Amino acid sequence: MSDENPSTSKDPPTEIQEEEVFEIIDFTNASDWEKFIAQIDEAIIDWHLNRYINLPPLQKNELTSGEWITKSTPLSFSNVPFTLTLHQLKQLENEHFEDSTNQDEEFQLPLYGKDAMDRTNDFPARAHCLSRWFGLRCFLLITPDTDPVMSKSKLNLLRSSAAIALNNTGCNIPMFVQIQEFWRRLYVGHATSPGIMTKYDMVHLKRCPVDHAHVHGLLYMLKAKLGLVAMPSLHYQVASRFTYMLKDWGSNGRWPAKIPDPEALASNFNTLLTGCLDDPVTELHLAATWPYRTGDMIIDNDVHSDYDPLKAPRWSIRLLYADDVTCLLAYYLFEFMKTADRRETLQDLLHYQEPKPEQDIGNVLDRLSDPNTKTVIPIVPKKLASGISKVVSNPQNFLRRGAYAISRISKGVERIRPDVLKDIIKFIFSDSEESSYATESRDGTLLHHKLKAAPVGSLTHRLAICAIVVNLCHGGVWALAQLWHAFVTELRQMLDSATNLSAIDISPPDLRTSLLHQKLQMLNCCIFRKSERETKAATAAAQEMEETILEQASNPDEVLDMSVELTKPDYIEDEGSIEGNKLSKPSEVQKPDGLFAVGAEAVEEDSGWPGFEDELEIDDEELEVETSDTEQHENKIEPSATQELTSQDTNEVQMEKNQVENVESSPDEDGGGKSTFDTDEDPGPRQKIASLQSESDDEFFECEEESDDIAVPEVAKTKSKPSKTDTQAEIAANKSKFLQQEAAGRLNQCGTLKLLYEDEPLYIPITQEHAPQTEDQLEEQAEVFSKLGDTLEGSQVRAKMQSTSLLSDMEAFKAANPGCVLEDFVRWYSPRDFEEGCLSPRMRIPGNLWVTTWSSARPVPAHRQKRIFDDTKEAEKVLHFLTNLKPAEITQMLLPMCVQETLLILRASSSNLLPCLPSLPPLCNQIETRASQLFQSWKMAGSVANQFVSWSPDEKSKVEDVLRQIAFAENLVERARSLQHKFSSLGEVKVVNAFVRNLLEHPEVELDGGANGKQGKIVRDFFKADQARQHAINNPQTNNMETNAEGSKPHLTTPVLPKPAGREFIIRTMAKHPSRISHEVPHRLYAVLAQSEFRLALSVSSDTTFF
Amino acid sequence: MAAQRATNNAAQGKICQFKLVLLGESAVGKSSLVLRFVKGQFHEYQESTIGAAFLTQTVCLQDTTVKFEIWDTAGQERYHSLAPMYYRGAQAAIVVYDITNQDTFARAKTWVRELQRQASPNIVIALAGNKADLANKRMVDHEEAAAYSEENGLLFMETSAKTAMHVNEIFLAIAEKLPKNEGGTNRPRPEVDITQSNPPGGSKGCCSSH
């Protein structure tokens, strides 16, 4: 049924027309009031309540334990919006609706009347207030949406509407209207059923009238209301419940028993500390209940009361929890999240500190490198330290003050003390000696892959922990900036000194982990390669130094030889690809290496060696015959050719030098002069040259585990007899060749394969390793590839781009297998492409990349090739990336590791708390799943490598969601711990746990044995101690009791329990109403008498058949 | 690498992006499968892949659009060490072997083992016995491969890039099996009881009368 009013107000010009239409459709709705009633009618019919509903009696505590469902619909009374809501216990739906057909034969109480008289669900622990006050399992409620219903006439109008609607539809569910201010929770209602009508009314006062402050007064009131003053109290059933509140648990019950030590908090970088700063269990409410007494049995008037709570048949307690108690894990995380909103750059923050001399980051770093600085345990700011003593001296507010003190930690300081920073950096970079991580029983096996974090105990993980601790305890975002700066500086030092990062494995970046972890892995790979190279270079340099000294004395031409070798960097720089080369130069320059000085003097002599060049050309020509590549003749046109030439050149020159050497140092050796070029029997010196060249030039790939390597030291030691180091095979191979290139860079034989056109075994060459990539680099590559498209040209370009590695392998293969052909290569490299003695058809496609690459490949062993993976450049990229992160981005990068750590800690707690908190593991799993989805889908790396993408608002809100869940889980843990502590004297752990679980899972728990049971005794003791404390405060003369209040017996006059915070009564009776010939109908008065509230909820029924 | 970046454009038009990697011995037809799936083409002699190729293709399921980002890797042993880079961030993998060659099936098994050990735990793995058109040269039994796949929880199909047999099907089957809701937004999530039955502040609800 549409309401015309909204549309008319919105659209005045069409008013008349619409009204006309409306009139035609539904002319029966004459007034607003009728329309309003019609809306209610409609809702009742929609919800299928327009019939007589009868259900089996309620189960015990069903009002609490059952599931309540609500349905609502908007109503409108001449444009004033209302909401009609149906509240019903779920069970109602499952049961079939009974249409009572025999209602006329015998008078029958309606469902609401039976429920109101039902004593099994008095004082439900959790239910809608109307259900609690009137004992209902199903009711309708009209609430105004905006302004409360204040006037009597409006109230009557609404109440009448409800009554008419119920009558119209034959619905026997009570309907209420909320009146007065909302906070007062005042309702009036009406219910009707065949033969009976019930009115619901309420009284709400601030103070309890003296006349009605006891059962007698209330009884009298009900009797008066019913007009049955003479009816004996025997016919009135009274259920009573007194509630007592405990807000101070005393020293025995207080949790945390010891607040986390701020100092420990600030100095613990291993893991995160747990615990709460305030008790999450704030109050205990004890309810003493007398479920059933008849009115005549009770003496409760203004002079005397026989209610003794210690003798109440039923004791139950409920606990109130604080959701906003600060728990440490959440505290760390939320504080950390604050920095994610910062806009400053690292420089902004560091710069801010510079003016203050003692905050100079430079000083910090100076000290860092000072090995004599003693290890200092990190600090607690002075402010805090004094705060603690104050806190401790005032045990009354120990907890709250303690929380305050901790919260002050980060506000007190704005930077990390240099010595502390030094320790932190030391810790982060220390070896992963701490076995506590590895042996920890936490199930963290794959968590870091799931969360895309980093392995526990790794450098990245430690960094994250330190960052989150530093952020909380050492000065927030400024401290974070400081830490990061020191961290990156340290990384730089590690790189410069070629020291591997100890807490990160040397393996290619693992794309399952955090981008930061990948970057650090990448850096470590770079450092590893660098250190390898430098070790080799150092060894070689040592030899060379030795030689130089020897040779300079004996051979003045030597200087010239050296100069040729050193010209190479110039050529390479021409080639233009060598950022990395430049970058690495400073460190090299610093090396005290005589070679460089000598070389520099002689550079201009470079061109003066035509003879060698001629020879070289011949050599090249001969080499290239097989591959019919004649480009070589146009020397120095193509950069690669130039480079190649130069290396050859140098090689030859060096050869000669060595010849001279050999002649000189080993007279018995055959010093064949130029014959070396033809049948070179001395690979040893050549290897050495290679090493030297690598040292003087970063461009070249440094092989690991070169088989030739082994020869190098030997040659160095026994220079006089280099030929001894040759393997038999090599000698044979070389001797049998006429004017053949020397085989180089062999790894081992490839099975028993022999070259197709040579009587030589097929050797697997030493090859360059593939370049590792981080996910952003891979992403960038994907981007480039997808831009190239899948056209033929595109895929050719793509393949060409990737052919570097193939070319390198082919060159190495050619070097290792003189006289080889492509077929030989394919037999090793892609055996399935060599079928029945020839290449597979796809390898024979004219112009395919394998063929073209093969033809352009020259025999160059891996160690003399251009590096595929330029570790110098890559390392710089990583450091550049890290240096340019903003603190907010740092936070985002580190967060997965932090969440991982908190989850691990929660998991560890959950296994301990399993008996009392079985819901924690599923909650942890839920957090894990959410965090996993979040971090997995979070694209930290943009499509441009070395760019970091901050999270979107959506992602941020999801992060906060995860953090809230963590906070909630932690709060649960602390609740459980607090309760375990409070009820630890129950006995066995098992018993305690069972009780705690009960408390956590139910809103209210009945104590076994009431006041006299074990549980009751603990509760009593808490109250007793509290009473004693209160007494001591109120009676200062006995002040000395305060010190040992818990242990001592309370003052004799002190009752165990305080005055009840509230008293509730339910008085019921079945009485004839409105007249003596009426049926007996149910009447119910609920009353709550509290310090600042007096509330009556009365339902009075009338027989509608007999007056 | 980007995991499921599910974006809810409209209520139904959900687009999920998944990384898929092809693994297997060289010359079993990985590139041909991709070429068939992405472009509907087939070359009798497909050039041997160098490094890795990257292609994308979108398929539509009932209510979701699945975009595959396909990394087609080189099969040569030499490139084995590159594979983790591609499969670690992948949500799906197709391991390909050549039904006319028993060795390639053995190699496929090693790939599956490696994936199970090293890749993301919920990666969807499909096994494709390619070159099914060369049935007369068959060396790997369909039953054997099917049983193996069953044991290891793999999707399995015999395919032929040449005749297009089961090529789209295997990609579709993967798309079906991939978890579409992960990373999505409006999924009703399983709640733990305690959050429901004990909502924050719930104990202070309107039922309290004092």
Structure description:
Chain B: GO terms for molecular function: G protein activity; GTP binding. Chain A has 1107 residues and is α+β, with helices and mostly antiparallel strands. Among the domains of chain A are: 4-194, no CATH class; 328-526 and 886-922, no CATH class; 720-860, no CATH class. Helices cover 48% and strands 12% of the residues of chain A. In chain A, strands 1-2-3-4-5-6-17-16-15-7-8-9-14 form a 13-stranded mixed beta sheet, with helices on both faces. A two-stranded antiparallel ribbon of chain A has the order 10-11. In chain A, strands 12-13 form a two-stranded antiparallel ribbon. In chain A, a hairpin with a 6-residue loop joins strand 10 (746-754) and strand 11. Chain A is elongated, with a radius of gyration of 45 Å. The relative contact order of chain A is 0.11. Chain B has one domain (14-177): P-loop containing nucleotide triphosphate hydrolases (Rossmann fold). Chain B is globular and about 45 Å long. Chain B is an alpha/beta fold and 210 residues long. Chain B contains 6 helices and 7 strands. The longest helix of chain B is centred in the middle third of the chain and has 17 residues, at 102-118. In chain B, strands 1, 2, 3, 4, 5, 6 and 7 form a 7-stranded mixed beta sheet that branches.
CATH domain topology of chain B: Rossmann fold
Terminus-to-terminus distance of chain A: 37 Å
Please estimate the helix content of chain A: 40-55%
Rg of chain A is 45 Å
CATH H-tier superfamily of chain B: P-loop containing nucleotide triphosphate hydrolases
- Oligomeric form: heterodimer
Uncertain residue ranges of chain B: 1-11, 182-210
Outline of this structure?
Chain A: Its main location: cytoplasm. The complex is a heterodimer of chains A (1107) and B (210). With 1107 residues, chain A is α+β, with helices and mostly antiparallel strands.
Q: What is the element layout, followed by pairings?
A:
The complex is a heterodimer of chains A (1107) and B (210).
Chain A: H1 4-10, H2 15-25, H3 32-46, H4 62-65, E1 68-77, E2 80-89, H5 91-94, H6 111-117, H7 129-134, E3 138-144, H8 152-169, E4 175-179, E5 186-193, E6 196-205, H9 215-226, E7 237-246, H10 250-253, H11 262-267, E8 281-294, E9 314-321, H12 328-339, H13 346-353, H14 361-369, H15 382-393, H16 398-412, H17 418-429, H18 435-439, H19 447-450, H20 459-473, H21 476-496, H22 515-554, H23 558-566, H24 568-575, H25 579-589, H26 594-601, H27 610-624, H28 639-665, H29 675-678, H30 683-696, H31 711-717, H32 728-736, E10 746-754, E11 761-765, H33 775-788, H34 792-816, H35 822-829, E12 834-835, E13 838-839, H36 849-856, H37 871-883, H38 887-913, H39 920-937, H40 953-982, H41 989-1001, E14 1005-1006, H42 1014-1034, E15 1062-1072, E16 1080-1090, E17 1093-1103
Parallel strand pairs in A: 3-4
Antiparallel strand pairs in A: 1-2, 2-3, 4-5, 5-6, 6-17, 7-8, 7-15, 8-9, 9-14, 10-11, 12-13, 15-16, 16-17
Helix pairs in contact in A: 1-2, 3-8, 12-20, 12-38, 12-40, 13-21, 14-17, 15-16, 17-20, 17-21, 20-21, 20-38, 21-37, 22-30, 22-37, 23-26, 23-28, 24-28, 25-37, 28-30, 34-36, 38-39, 38-40, 39-40, 40-41
Chain B: E1 7-8, E2 14-24, H1 30-39, E3 52-60, E4 64-73, H2 83-87, E5 92-98, H3 102-118, E6 124-130, H4 142-152, E7 155-158, H5 167-177, H6 193-197
Parallel strand pairs in B: 2-4, 2-5, 5-6, 6-7
Antiparallel strand pairs in B: 1-2, 3-4
